[in-house]
Sequence to fold (69 residues):
Amino acid sequence: MSDPIFIELPNTTLRAKIPVAILVLPGDNPDRGVLPDVEVEYSIGDYVAGRDRHLDAVRDLIREDREST
Fold:
């Protein structure tokens, strides 16, 4: 964990704590972010309807887990 820095805004004297950290992931591209465990594909209809296929996939996994126990 890194040490945060504290700043005080000059006009309002409000104080803020800002964490300072450098996170590096292993591999050839450390800036890639987190790779999902489950891949989800979207269709144009999903975007138009505002469907969240990632959330649907999570719900399906939870249902499957509950049914198997």
Remarks:
- The chain has a mean pLDDT of 86.
